[in-house]
């Protein structure tokens, strides 16, 4: 908090030399009054920004240890954590994100398979994600017991997977395998 008290004097640096009046007139009666309003406005903005920054700092500081503790379980002391870094995903986290989209995968199977005459749609997919959370490859296979909606189901599922925003992760590549079966009977 010592840094907070030293930054509180920052708005005073806006005054010209010999200007302690704070009106921006330079301390002389014949000073430029047109710029005093602009200086006051600038001072007010800077003071407001400073006040917001100081008010928000304790809230961020209180949240940082809890976030670092949760993100860094099982790792060292968490040095350097919490400074603008995004939480890292694990294989289990990324797999769960894909599993959470199961209802939308079911919608793809119903719309393009079951509604077109199939009684059963089997979907298997293999998704590879890099350490930035980007989808590198998707290998989806669709089997319908009857009908020809397989390619449309595959396109729907692939589009759905590409729409997921995966978090960055520690591993260079993570591959997730997932299977779904949707049946009308």
List keywords for this structure.
2 domains; 185 residues; alpha+beta; disordered N terminus; Fusion Protein Consisting Of Minor Coat Protein, Glycine Rich Linker, Tola, And A His Tag, Chain: A, Domain 2; 3 strands; three-stranded antiparallel beta sheet; elongated
Please write out the topology:
Elements: H1 2-7, H2 34-71, H3 91-99, H4 102-112, E1 120-130, E2 135-144, H5 150-162, E3 173-183
Antiparallel strand pairs: 1-2, 1-3
Can you offer a commentary on this structure?
There is one protein chain. The chain is α+β, with helices and mostly antiparallel strands. The protein has 2 domains: 2-71; 91-183, Fusion Protein Consisting Of Minor Coat Protein, Glycine Rich Linker, Tola, And A His Tag, Chain: A, Domain 2 (2-Layer Sandwich), CATH 3.30.1150. The chain is built from 5 helices and 3 strands; from the N terminus they run H-H-H-H-E-E-H-E. It has a 3-stranded antiparallel β-sheet, with helices on one face. Strand 1 and strand 2 (135-144) form a beta hairpin. Helix 4 (102-112) runs antiparallel to helix 5 (150-162). The longest helix is centred in the first third of the chain and has 38 residues, at 34-71. Residues 1-31, 59-64 and 74-82 have low confidence and may be disordered.
